[in-house]
Design goal:
Blueprint lengths: L1 H14 L22 H15 L3 H13 L32 H14 L6 H15 L19 H7 L7 H9 L5 H7 L7 E3 L4 H5 L13 H7 L12 E3 L11 H7 L6 H8 L2 H12 L1 H16 L22
Antiparallel strand pairs: 1-2
Helix pairs in contact: 1-2, 2-4, 2-5, 3-5, 8-13, 8-14, 11-13, 13-14
GO cellular component, one term: extracellular region
Subcellular location: Secreted
GO molecular function, one term: metal ion binding
Length: 328
Amino acid sequence: MAMFAVALVAALLFSVSSAFPWGGQLDPHFYDHSCPQAQQIVASIVGKAHYHEPRMAASLLRLHFHDCFVKGCDASILLDSSASVTSEKRSIPNKDSARGFEVVDEIKAALEAACPRTVSCADVLALAARDSTVVTGGPGWIVPLGRRDSLGASIQGSNNDIPAPNNTLPTIITKFKLQGLDIVDLVALLGSHTIGNARCTSFRQRLYNQTGNGLPDFTLDPAAAAILRPGCPRSGGDQNLFFLDHVTPFKFDNQYYKNLLLRQGLLSSDEVLLTGSPATAGLVKLYASNQAIFFQHFARSMVKMGNVSPLTGGKGEIRSNCRRINRN
């Protein structure tokens, strides 16, 4: 499986169109001379992790999202708490749900052995997100590289800037806009929920008390709600996991959008894409009917998100351990 992932990355490097908005100072060829084996190392370990635990692909993809929405794509999410750092891992969006850190550690250790102090943890997250998408059957893209790692974290930013499962559509649109991402990016990127899981606590209100009147969410299919309730009771079971896409939970495809059309989106922030505005609903219908366009838009939006406020040049550092800043 790991060799398969390496082959996929090699094919991407030669076959994917270069017509992407690289932006900033990032460059897909950044490590061509300083660490030419970097992308193969990442792909191999991601492929192995996915083989042993198919859920891990979604977890690694999510780490990149939650990193980029807080202070830009700078690997701040990977920092553990210390005397100078309050870890973003303790924030509401990440506590008891963000995972995959051990896989990142394994990737970083392999990169340090091959090319010490060369490949940033932020670039590891960007590459691992791409490779996790590819290994589950989704699109590939050339990843612009050259990010550097932050010297701190922001638990406040993590609590405030990452879209929440119960946010209204206008709030979600605003949070994306603050990152320079538009409605197309929003609907395409939420398509990553075609893989992965969500905890009961993330959607319980939809089953029992969506608007504070004790009634379930009228936008959730009653039959789907009946299936969910035994595993997500009114109290207890907060950490019980449910597939975001119950039809093809381990395959990166456009089934997520088809589920929304059937009112079977798991999170309120999912289903609101269909019910919240004609613009987002139109994109849901487009992606549900045309997987190729969804894949194209998703790949472009991932590159765009990966360009959010990266540290480059002399800013930040290249951490030797992704969990802590260097002590020079």
